[in-house]
Amino acid sequence: MTFAVVVLAAGSSTRMGGRFKLLEDLGGRPLVLWSVEAAMGSRCRPVVVVLGNRADEVRRALPAGVEVVVCDGWREGMSSSIREGVRALPRESEGVVICLGDMPFVTTRTIDLLASAARERGIAYCRVGGEIRSPSAFRSEFYADLMVLRGDAGAKEVIRRNMDRAVGLEVDPVELLDVDTEEDLELARMIAFERAVNRRK
């Protein structure tokens, strides 16, 4: 048995001034591809990508090897995508790491660490200071809790209700940059450019 990854990529980019962030260029690749490739590089399988808004366009940007599900109720908010992703997991999965498709700098290492920590404790999440942040991981016994989420609530609600079973991993805040606005996208482009320059040195 192993952990799976669910990448949530169904939203409508409401704060992007009319731009669709998941397909915006970041370092020569669509933004959504960054988090999906980090998941594909991990030891977790399968990697399930949940699509919704402009699903056909996003699907064409994804690499071979991912499993794709389309969330017809994506307008409800993040909870509907979480439910769709968990529903798609194989029955034998040990647990799941839930990632966001608009967090391009999450690393394969962090995904593997979350899976390992959740295997031991039940729940693991990223933390900056005292703040609960995505991505997070849940052993399969918490699938029922994830399946009853409603509205735009993410998995934080499940974490807060089960803090005695949860462990937080301190992560570099840059890794957890969530691209919600045009300003976030420009910051991500600066970071990606600087990293590309440093790799060439």
Describe, in plain words, how this protein is organized in 3D.
- By secondary structure, the chain is an alpha/beta fold.
- It has a single domain (3-200), classed as Alpha-Beta Complex (Spore Coat Polysaccharide Biosynthesis Protein SpsA, Chain A).
- 35% of the residues lie in helices and 23% in strands.
- It has 7 helices and 9 strands, in the order E-E-E-H-E-H-E-H-E-H-E-E-H-H-E-H.
- It has helices at residues 31-40, 55-61, 78-87, 108-121, 143-147, 156-161, 182-200, and strands at residues 3-9, 25-26, 29-30, 47-51, 67-70, 95-100, 123-128, 131-139, 166-170.
- It has a 7-stranded mixed sheet, sandwiched between helices. Strands 2-3 form a two-stranded antiparallel ribbon.
- The radius of gyration is 16 Å and the shape is globular.
- The model has no long low-confidence stretch (mean pLDDT 94).
Task: Give a brief rundown of this model.
35% of the residues lie in helices and 23% in strands. With 201 residues, it is of the alpha/beta class. The model has no long low-confidence stretch (mean pLDDT 94).
What's the alpha carbon Rg, rounded to whole Å? 16 Å
The CATH topology is Spore Coat Polysaccharide Biosynthesis Protein SpsA, Chain A
What does the main sheet amount to? 7 strands, mixed
Q: Mind telling me which CATH architecture this is? A: Alpha-Beta Complex
Q: What fraction strand?
A: 15-25%
Shape, principal axes of CA atoms = globular
Distance between the termini: 41 Å
CATH class: Alpha Beta
Number of strands: 9
SSE order, one letter for each helix or strand:
EEEHEHEHEHEEHHEH
Q: Which residue ranges are poorly predicted, with pLDDT under 50 across at least 5 consecutive positions?
A: none
SS-based class: alpha/beta
User: Please, how many domains?
Assistant: 1
CATH superfamily: Spore Coat Polysaccharide Biosynthesis Protein SpsA, Chain A
* Count of helical regions: 7
Task: Record the strand order, biggest sheet.
Answer: 5-4-1-6-8-7-9
**Residue-averaged pLDDT, rounded?**
94
Q: What is the helix fraction of residues, given as a range? A: 25-40%
